[in-house]
Amino acid sequence: MSQQTTVVPKKSGGIRDLTKMFGGSQSTGRQFGILGALIVIIVLFEILTKGKTLDPVNLINLVNGNAYVLILAVGMVMVIIAGHIDLSVGSVAAFVGIVVAKSMFVGHFPWPAAMLVGLILGALVGAWQGWWVAYVGVPAFIVTLAGMLLFRGANQFIGNSTTVPVPDAFTFIGGGFLPDFGPDFGFSNPTLILGLLVAIAIVWQERRLRRAQELMGADKAPLWVSVVKLVVLLGVVAFATYLFASGRVGTSYPVSGIVLAVLVLGYSFLTQNTIIGRHIYAVGGNWRAAELSGVNIRRVNFFVIANMSVIASVAGMLWIARSVASGPGDGVGWELDAIAAVFIGGAAVSGGIGTITGSIIGGLVIAVLNNGLQLLGVGSDRVQMIKGLVLLVAVGVDVYSKRQGKPSIIGLLTRGRKSYLDETPIPATPQGTQTPTPTGGAQDTVRPKDLTPEGD
Amino acid sequence: MESAVHTGPTILEMRDITKEFPGVKALEDVTLTVRAGEIHAVCGENGAGKSTLMKVLSGVYPHGSYSGEIIYQGKEVRFSNIRSSEAVGIAIIHQELALIPLLSITENIFLGNEPTRFGVIDWIQAKKRAIELLARVGLQDDPDTLVKNIGVGKQQLVEIAKALNKSVKLLILDEPTAALNESDSQHLLDLLRGLQGKGITSIMISHKLNEIEAIADSITILRDGRTIETLDVDADGVDEDRIIRGMVGRVLEHRFPERNSKIGDVFFEVKNWNVQHPQVSERMVVKNSSFSVRRGEVVGFAGLMGAGRTELAMSIFGRAYGNYLSGQLFKDGKEIKLHNVHEAIEAGLAYVSEDRKALGLNLLDDIKRSIVSAKLSKISSVDVVDDVEEYQLAEAYRKSLRIKTPSVDEGVNKLSGGNQQKVVLAKWMFTDPDLLILDEPTRGIDVGAKTEIYGIIRDLAAQGMGIIMISSELPELLGVSDRILTIFEGRITNDLLVEQATPENLMRSMTSSDKKATVR
User: What does DSSP assign to residue B286?
Assistant: First the structure.
């Protein structure tokens, strides 16, 4: 039962619109808070390490060294939204890695063919696990726990528990850079072009958003909101482009980062704008209601689990490319890093809530923390302890603020700005305006005509 | 009704209670005075503040989170949680039962309050006491029975037994009969009267005005977070219309819309439909049922709880319930086979579930996404959802169904029951069904919203949609349907035009399988 007696109409735009930049309605709040936390951590380490954190070389390393976890987080958040968990991703990545490495080293496959083999193998592993989860009905926790053992063993069986090197041509995808061309300005030209493309995409997206608002007939956000938003975003893009472009000669924004960006964009679109994306949220939010709405639950479960293994195979290939070899200990503990990133990024343990963007931000929080502490010379023992506490506190703060009946962190951030919103309450009695029903019929019987107001 | 008991002294006085949530005043200077030994009903539309008031009283909202004072048995009390209110004899039984299904009746009764000997639970003592308590509430079940194996009506009684164990003086019941059928409800009301005879005071929140009229000694009416009035049932000559007037602040001359039926030809037929229970295969839930629906017709399904109404409806809706055994469906004269819900939706069927929160909505979702969720393909091209069209459609439904919300971007969990139900209706109207099945469409929603829903139903019928309405409330069935089928133990026992139907002959067919009245 709602306690509302009066309702405050919400203006579209302003601060609330800013929150919408980071995913749809499912979890607007926490990611925004986590984004703030990420910025604070970056600034903090930048000061503590006296400028080493945002040094181009370090930044490029950061992306290269974490791309595989962030890629896993993209798949993992979808699994978690649907209400499952996948513990097998590290083993699957290692299994695919060794097969791809062997196919090139022993079988002399050219690297594109080997990559194709890796993706197909990932799909087969995914289909296997998806079948157990979706069609047999074994909980994903068990299926993937089994998979974790199964594919770890398979990796060591195929590789005889030894390390298999990969050819130089293949290392391009894990540790490579875009080839430079054109006149030399002292910057990496492909990175500059990439930055420009991103900037154009952001402006185009904002235009599309404003046009959509116009079409919706919603109150458009004032122009200054869009301008401020664009100035901030473009500033960030320009700064990042400058950093990545001014690294050592021959370096650029890393290829693994491009793979990551493509996956993030593609899957963000999938989860937010397509039917299967909506269905994933529906199944995680209330599978019984989803079933009664005609959603094929098995298909959705099969998809998220199978898709996760395909993504794990990409991560596995990126990893062996970067470390120039596939070994028996690859991917140990990756599943937990990916799961931590997803939960720090605002997903709910019970399913139904979470976004790709949030999970990436969550993954970056861990990555920057890792990197910054290492730069400061903190030992890995203490780094692990700090990471554990960050995960606990991040989720704890959110759980606490939800229990207090506060909307979320974003609610706290914007509380002082209520006056920005139009506070006129909607009249408690609905107006008797005649509006056509969407089904096209007259509407008079909908309104109880016989109600006469009676004063107290 | 006997009324000698309720002239006792005041047991409870809540003075000037104001409770605010961020941005919303849920209660404003509410007063409630309850005399010892009476049954006091609290009425109001959804969102009027009844449940909030009871949560203040029982310590769910602790002292300090509201303003005003609570005088109980002559002293001011300040509860910090539920335990502290229980300590002085106040027990609340919530709308959603707080029993643990996999524990036995005994274990549930003594949960958190276990009798111990030397620090170990004394189960012999507990069981003895449980049997006594069950006898007091009129239950003969074995106290070792698991709670999941007894019906919801008996579960309600176990809750009361649990309260009695804590030597309750003031029993608060939030919608106690909402999920019960007529006979269970009657039993519960009798029990309340029995407890009243033993000196237990009850506060009861209910939407069922006939029950309130029958059992309550006094009635306090809340509207929009304020106390409107307190009525003495005997002295003030209260009847249902009087209560409704107080609740809605207006006279409801016609609670049901005019029937403007334009009934067409039969377009949907069910023939010899048989369905098994999903787990217990020897149990037949639907037995050899046949019926038909005409265009523009509202067909009411009357039956007691457990009669198989929901099961029949859901098994037709793409076999969403039970194991299909045999039977045929015909639409527009052609046989259709529906193996899953998706096929049913494509064939033009829609089913609005009786359990809005568990089966009807994803409570994590917002309004606009909920509305389009059952037929996304309608606003998608190449599987990409058009979010502009989604918003516009949702806005159109918000206006035409008058869903009270600041924006269709809001989460459905923020809406009141009546408005959530409108979202569910919109969701199924969006699928453009030819046959709309409504299962208890007005359960747990307030009188004003009910009237609106009746209007929507009649309006959809006038547009040529065939409608099946399952309801436990006979007045509602008689007020909205064109024709009423009665169901008893999985069989259709009668088929009456509304002009022929009376509460008496319906009830007769709902409780026995011999067809006495006219069969068409």
Answer: E
